[in-house]
Amino acid sequence: MLDTAKSQETLLEVNNVEVIYNHVILVLKGVSLQVPKGGITALLGGNGAGKSTTLKSISNLLLSERGEVTKGSVIYRDQPVYGLSPAELVRRGVIQVMEGRHCFGHLTVEENLLTGAYTRKASRAEINQNLELVYSYFPRLKERRKALAGYTSGGEQQMVAIGRALMSKPETVLLDEPSMGLAPQLVEEIFQIVRDLNEKEGVTFLLAEQNTNVALRYAHYGYILESGRVVMDGPAADLRENPDVKEFYLGVSDEGRKSFRNVRSYRRRKRWLN
């Protein structure tokens, strides 16, 4: 399994972004990150660390939640994209798979998948070809293609959500908490498919995930967020072996779980953040 990005070409840049909700609540406090083309980049951190907000600041879905970027920039392929409509961003090759799956429960599995091609100007033959490609990665969906999505399992709904995103032929997928609420076996299956899509189809992934152990096994590079700031980043292999990461996320300490504020590397990093 690769632990370094396949390409050094930077596809997506987030530069010193601050996000405020309801004109008052400061959620992101100067987040910066880079996503290389052809890589899997992980955003890690606990609940409320700012992972989902970071993804929404890229996909321009903040306004629906009364959030706004008040500082910094989001650059995709050397072009600023903040302020574009989410539909226009999809046309440029960036799509987000939301936390919690969000399928159309009253539509069949196949109808859900076809909604992903809505922004494309493609022939029916091309769309059918893409549909078969999705089914090749998610054979279970082909078996359930006529079932109402609302009556499928959580794992199947996650597959529908990812498959629907793939129907837009994206260059970059923003994947929010793909393991949420799923059994460990299904989590491994989903991440294996993500890796296959990355290696075989060249899809770039930026994924937000609380399951650090799994995410760092499949990602090439990782950023760790706490309280709206990046407190640590590095190649996934290095983060897996970092004693502070082990202590904070895996509880390998006689003193119990700690905040990054109490470990040496965070205090070093904090000097740069202030």
Question: How would you characterize this protein structure?
Answer:
This protein is α/β, with parallel strands linked by helices and 274 residues long. The chain has 2 domains: 1-93 and 171-231 and 265-274, P-loop containing nucleotide triphosphate hydrolases (Rossmann fold); 103-169, no CATH class. Helix content is 38%, strand content 25%. It contains 11 helices and 10 strands. The protein has helices at residues 51-59, 86-91, 109-115, 124-137, 139-143, 154-166, 184-201, 212-218, 236-241, 243-250, 264-273, and strands at residues 10-21, 25-36, 40-44, 67-76, 79-80, 94-97, 172-176, 204-209, 221-226, 229-235. The strands form 2 sheets. A 6-stranded mixed β-sheet has the order 6-7-8-3-9-10, with helices on both faces. The chain has a 4-stranded antiparallel β-sheet with strand order 2-1-4-5, with helices on one face. The protein is globular, with a radius of gyration of 19 Å. It starts with 9 loop residues before the first strand and ends with a helix. 43% of the residues are buried.
